[in-house]
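Example S7 (structure tokens).
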């Protein structure tokens, strides 16, 4: 609907449309769409029960925050804005919806009064079937658009889940490899420590045997040298004629 048409309606019907603004869509209308989209989501809000304590125990991740009422309200506003952006030329269900909202809400009496006024503005060209068909069109298009966004979010979620699993697998392989290396190093360390403890017992006896031979050789050499030196000294004192 053009701005000129809107201005013309205000002139023709007085203040009935003065209160029409971006009215927040009724929760009953959008909650159904919201619940349908949630029904397709896997049950991901349940907190995984912690594993029993033990060697294989894994720390339980923090619970996923639950959606708040303010989040739902904000999404309702976005969906209603998308609804407004779908406005088709002429007077149809969207104008009727805004009219009854401005008149106090969706009631049978408000629908009758708003329809009569809008029909006059449309030159008595409106029909109930036409309004209903346009309403069904808006609902189908709105559902298609929002569910398309939900599907995209599901795809984004699946990508993150896949990345999470791949990272867990990769880190598991790496940690297992490191654990194996540590285990091998521990075995090697124990082996080296045992060999170190046996070093003294391996060499003490042969070293002691060599020391004994050295001592014997030194003692024997000292005695022989003393005897020889004594003989030399004695011979040097003899006067031969």
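Recovered sequence:
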């Amino acid at each position: 609907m053009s701005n000129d048409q809107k201005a013309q309606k205000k002139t023709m019907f007085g203040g009935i449309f003065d209160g029409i603004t971006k009215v927040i869509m009724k929760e009953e209308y959008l909650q159904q769409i919201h619940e349908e989209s949630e029904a397709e989501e896997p049950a991901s809000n349940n907190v995984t029960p912690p594993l029993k304590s033990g060697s294989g125990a894994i720390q339980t991740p923090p619970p996923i925050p639950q959606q708040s009422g303010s989040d739902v309200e904000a999404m309702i506003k976005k969906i209603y804005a998308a609804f407004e952006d779908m406005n088709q030329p002429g007077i149809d269900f969207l104008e009727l919806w805004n009219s009854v909202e401005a008149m106090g809400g969706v009631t049978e009496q408000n629908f009758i009064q708003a329809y009569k006024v809008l029909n006059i503005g449309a030159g008595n060209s409106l029909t109930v079937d036409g309004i209903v068909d346009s309403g069904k069109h808006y609902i189908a298009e709105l559902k298609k658009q929002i569910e398309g966004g939900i599907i995209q979010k599901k795809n984004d979620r699946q990508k993150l889940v896949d990345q999470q699993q791949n990272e867990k697998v990769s880190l598991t392989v790496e940690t297992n490899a490191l654990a194996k290396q540590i285990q091998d190093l521990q075995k090697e360390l124990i082996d080296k420590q045992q060999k170190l403890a046996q070093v003294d017992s391996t060499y003490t006896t042969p070293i002691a045997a060599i020391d004994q031979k050295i001592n014997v050789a030194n003692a024997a050499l000292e005695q022989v040298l003393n005897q020889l030196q004594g003989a030399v000294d004695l011979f040097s004192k003899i006067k031969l004629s």
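Notes on this example. The chain is about 75% helix and 0% strand.
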